[in-house]
Amino acid sequence: MQDYVLSMIKEIAAKFEIEKVVLFGSRARDDHLKTSDYDIAIFGKDISLVDQALLREAMEEINTLKKVDVVFIDEDSEKELVENI
Protein backbone atom coordinates (compact mmCIF):
# COMPACT_ATOMS: atom_id res chain seq x y z
CA MET A 1 0.00 0.00 0.00
CA GLN A 2 2.80 2.44 0.83
CA ASP A 3 4.26 2.10 -2.69
CA TYR A 4 0.87 3.03 -4.15
CA VAL A 5 0.58 6.09 -1.91
CA LEU A 6 4.10 7.26 -2.74
CA SER A 7 3.53 6.84 -6.48
CA MET A 8 0.31 8.86 -6.23
CA ILE A 9 2.13 11.59 -4.30
CA LYS A 10 4.79 11.76 -7.02
CA GLU A 11 2.11 11.94 -9.70
CA ILE A 12 0.32 14.80 -7.93
CA ALA A 13 3.57 16.67 -7.28
CA ALA A 14 4.53 16.44 -10.95
CA LYS A 15 1.48 18.54 -11.84
CA PHE A 16 2.77 21.48 -9.81
CA GLU A 17 6.09 23.34 -9.71
CA ILE A 18 7.50 21.63 -6.65
CA GLU A 19 11.18 21.47 -5.76
CA LYS A 20 10.99 18.41 -3.53
CA VAL A 21 8.52 16.14 -1.74
CA VAL A 22 9.66 14.41 1.45
CA LEU A 23 8.00 11.69 3.47
CA PHE A 24 8.82 12.26 7.14
CA GLY A 25 7.67 11.04 10.52
CA SER A 26 7.05 7.45 11.56
CA ARG A 27 6.47 6.14 8.03
CA ALA A 28 9.82 7.55 6.87
CA ARG A 29 11.56 6.05 9.91
CA ASP A 30 9.71 2.76 9.33
CA ASP A 31 8.52 2.63 12.92
CA HIS A 32 4.87 3.38 12.15
CA LEU A 33 1.79 1.65 13.46
CA LYS A 34 -0.91 0.27 11.19
CA THR A 35 -2.97 3.37 11.97
CA SER A 36 -0.18 5.93 11.41
CA ASP A 37 -0.77 8.72 8.93
CA TYR A 38 1.50 9.87 6.10
CA ASP A 39 3.43 13.06 6.83
CA ILE A 40 4.42 14.84 3.63
CA ALA A 41 6.60 17.96 3.35
CA ILE A 42 6.34 19.89 0.11
CA PHE A 43 9.27 22.19 -0.66
CA GLY A 44 8.83 25.02 -3.14
CA LYS A 45 9.09 28.74 -3.65
CA ASP A 46 6.04 30.84 -4.33
CA ILE A 47 3.46 28.06 -4.20
CA SER A 48 0.27 30.09 -4.26
CA LEU A 49 -2.41 29.60 -1.63
CA VAL A 50 -4.69 28.27 -4.36
CA ASP A 51 -2.09 25.68 -5.42
CA GLN A 52 -1.49 24.78 -1.76
CA ALA A 53 -5.20 24.14 -1.34
CA LEU A 54 -5.34 22.09 -4.56
CA LEU A 55 -2.27 20.08 -3.55
CA ARG A 56 -3.60 19.43 -0.06
CA GLU A 57 -6.98 18.37 -1.45
CA ALA A 58 -5.39 16.05 -4.01
CA MET A 59 -3.15 14.47 -1.36
CA GLU A 60 -6.09 13.96 0.99
CA GLU A 61 -8.07 12.26 -1.78
CA ILE A 62 -5.46 9.54 -2.33
CA ASN A 63 -7.23 6.20 -1.98
CA THR A 64 -5.82 5.14 1.36
CA LEU A 65 -7.38 4.36 4.70
CA LYS A 66 -4.74 6.54 6.37
CA LYS A 67 -4.73 10.30 6.76
CA VAL A 68 -2.25 12.29 4.68
CA ASP A 69 -0.87 15.38 6.45
CA VAL A 70 0.77 17.99 4.23
CA VAL A 71 3.25 20.66 5.35
CA PHE A 72 4.49 23.35 2.95
CA ILE A 73 8.12 24.42 3.33
CA ASP A 74 9.66 27.57 1.87
CA GLU A 75 12.40 30.03 2.79
CA ASP A 76 10.16 31.51 5.51
CA SER A 77 9.57 28.19 7.29
CA GLU A 78 10.87 27.75 10.80
CA LYS A 79 14.39 26.34 10.86
CA GLU A 80 13.53 23.84 13.62
CA LEU A 81 10.65 22.41 11.58
CA VAL A 82 12.83 22.00 8.49
CA GLU A 83 15.60 20.33 10.53
CA ASN A 84 13.13 17.80 11.94
CA ILE A 85 12.03 16.79 8.46
Keywords:
85 residues; alpha+beta; Beta Polymerase, domain 2
Structural description of this entry:
A three-stranded mixed beta sheet has the order 1-2-3. It is globular, with a radius of gyration of 13 Å. By secondary structure, it is α+β, with helices and mostly antiparallel strands. Helix 3 links the parallel strand 2 and strand 3. The chain is built from four helices and three strands. The longest helix has 13 residues. The chain has one domain: Beta Polymerase, domain 2. It is 41% helix and 20% strand.
In short:
The chain has 85 residues and is of the alpha+beta class.
Write the layout of secondary structure elements.
Elements: H1 2-14, E1 20-24, H2 26-29, E2 38-43, H3 49-60, E3 68-73, H4 79-84
Parallel strand pairs: 2-3
Antiparallel strand pairs: 1-2
CATH homologous superfamily (4th level) name: Beta Polymerase, domain 2
End-to-end separation in angstroms reads: 22 Å
Q: Catalogue the unreliable spans.
A: none
N to C succession of SSEs: HEHEHEH
